[in-house]
Write a structure and sequence with these properties.
Layout lengths: L6 E9 L6 H13 L5 E9 L6 H11 L4 E6 L5 H10 L5 E4 L11 H9 L4 E9 L4 H18 L7 E8 H8 L8 H8 L3 E8 L11 H15 L2 H31 L6 H34 L6 E5 L22
Parallel strand pairs: 1-2, 1-4, 2-3, 5-7
Antiparallel strand pairs: 3-8, 4-6, 5-6
The structure holds uridine-5'-diphosphate and magnesium ion (MG).
Protein name: Glycosyl hydrolase
Organism: Bifidobacterium imperatoris
Keywords: Cell membrane, Glycosyltransferase, Hydrolase, Membrane, Transferase, Transmembrane, Transmembrane helix
Length: 336
C-alpha cells in the first residue's frame, strides 16, 4: 500500500435520547480524530433518531465547534435504529463507513485497527464480541438461539455475536444503498451483500450512561424481520405442517368411518372431538399468523413510503456518488 493512498472514513453514530452518553462520546471521538494516521481522514456523522432530550442541541453545538469534520442528520421522528442507520448509509460519501453506538459499548479506539484490515483489502471488517458485559443472561441466550435458528432456516452464513459495529468499504455502502426495503434487519442485510469479510474480536463494554433503547417487543419485531427478509422457509413449514395434519386427519376420519360401520355409533367421543378441533384450530391459526407476518411486510413495502424523513441536517458539500436520494428535497441547508 503506497503512502499516497489516503482514505476518507465516516464514523456514523445513531443516537436516540443519548444526552448522558454524548459528553463522553465527544471526548473519545476528539481523541480518535486527533490521533488519525496520515492516510485516514475522519468525518463524524451523527444521525439523531427523533430524540426528545438534549441530544440535538448537544450535537449541534459540537458540530459548530468542529465544522470541518462533524456532520449530522436529524430525523423527523423516532424511526428506529435500523432506519436511522439507513439514513446514515444513504448520506455517506466517503470511501468507508464505520457504524458505532452512541453509548460507547463499542470502543471507538478500535477503529484504527479495523481500518488497518480495510487497508489490507477487506471490505467488511465486522467486530465480533468476545464478551458481552452488562447484558442479561436472557438477552445473550435468546440472541444465540435466534441466530442459530436463522442460519439453519435461511441457509445463509450469519455472523455470530456481531452487532452493527463494523467498517464497510465503499462497495458495501453502495450495495446497502440499493437495499431500500422497509422492514429492515441490518445484520441480515450485511450478510446478504457478501464481499470480503473479516472478523475482528473485541470486548463489548457496558453502556457509559443511560439505559438500553431496545425493548423486548422491538427486538422480537427485529427478529421476525431477520427471518422474513431472508427466507420464506416458515411458509414452506406451514405448507408441510398443513399437509401432515390433513393427512393424519384423513386417516383418522377413515378409521372413524370404518369403526362406525363395524361396531355401530359410538356416542361418547367428546374428548377426541375436542382434541382434534383444538389441535386443528391451533395449527390453522399458527399458519395464518405466519402468512400474516409476510403479508404485513408486503403491505408495508408496497406503500412505498420513504424509510425516514429528515428534519434538519448539516452535511459536507461533496456530492454523493451512486446514492439515489429520496430525501434530497428535504435536506437542510445549514452548511450547504
Ligand atoms: N438507537 C436509535 N434509535 C432507536 C433505538 C436506539 O438510534 O430507536 C441507537 C442508540 O442511541 C444507540 C444504538 O442505537 O446509539 C444502540 O442502542 P442501545 O444501546 O439502546 O441498544 P443495545 O446496545 O442495548 O443493543
Ligand atoms: Mg447499547
Amino acid at each position: 500500500m503506497s503512502n499516497t493512498d489516503v482514505r476518507t472514513l465516516t464514523v456514523m453514530i445513531p443516537c436516540y435520547n443519548e444526552q448522558e452518553s454524548l459528553p463522553a462520546l465527544f471526548k473519545r471521538m476528539d481523541a480518535l480524530v486527533a490521533s488519525a494516521p496520515a492516510r485516514l481522514r475522519y468525518t463524524l456523522l451523527f444521525v439523531d433518531d427523533g430524540s426528545k432530550d438534549d441530544t440535538r442541541p448537544l450535537i449541534r453545538d459540537y458540530a459548530g465547534k468542529h465544522q470541518d469534520y462533524v456532520e449530522y442528520l436529524f430525523l423527523s421522528r423516532n424511526f428506529g435504529k435500523e432506519k436511522a442507520m439507513y439514513a446514515g448509509i444513504m448520506h455517506t460519501h466517503t470511501d468507508g463507513l464505520v457504524i458505532i453506538d452512541a453509548d460507547l459499548q463499542d470502543p471507538p479506539e478500535l477503529i484504527p485497527e479495523m481500518a488497518e484490515l480495510w487497508f489490507q483489502g477487506y471490505e467488511d471488517v465486522y467486530a465480533r464480541r468476545r464478551s458481552r458485559e452488562g447484558e442479561s443472561w436472557l438477552k445473550k441466550a435468546t440472541s444465540r438461539w435466534y441466530y442459530s435458528l436463522l442460519q439453519k432456516i435461511s441457509g445463509m452464513e450469519i455472523q455470530r455475536d456481531t452487532g452493527d459495529f463494523r467498517l464497510l468499504d465503499r462497495k458495501c455502502i453502495e450495495a446497502l444503498q440499493r437495499l431500500d426495503e422497509s422492514e429492515r434487519n441490518s445484520k441480515a442485510l450485511f450478510s446478504w451483500i457478501g464481499f470480503k469479510k473479516i472478523e475482528f474480536l473485541y470486548d463489548r463494554d457496558k453502556r457509559v450512561a443511560g439505559t438500553t433503547k431496545w425493548s423486548y417487543p422491538k427486538l422480537f419485531h427485529l427478529a421476525m424481520d431477520g427471518i422474513t427478509s431472508f427466507t420464506i422457509a416458515p411458509l414452506k413449514i406451514a405448507t408441510w405442517a398443513g399437509s401432515i395434519v390433513s393427512a393424519a386427519a384423513f386417516l383418522y376420519a377413515l378409521f372413524l368411518i370404518v369403526r362406525t360401520l363395524v361396531s355401530g355409533i359410538d356416542v361418547p367421543g367428546y374428548a377426541s372431538t375436542m382434541v382434534v378441533m383444538l389441535f386443528l384450530g391451533g395449527v390453522q391459526l399458527l399458519c395464518l399468523g405466519i402468512i400474516g407476518e409476510y403479508l404485513g411486510r408486503i403491505f408495508m413495502q408496497t406503500k412505498g413510503r420513504p424509510n425516514y424523513l429528515i428534519e434538519e441536517s448539516k452535511l459536507g458539500s461533496k456530492p454523493m456518488p451512486g446514492a439515489h436520494d429520496p430525501e434530497s428535497a428535504q435536506q437542510g441547508t445549514e452548511s450547504e
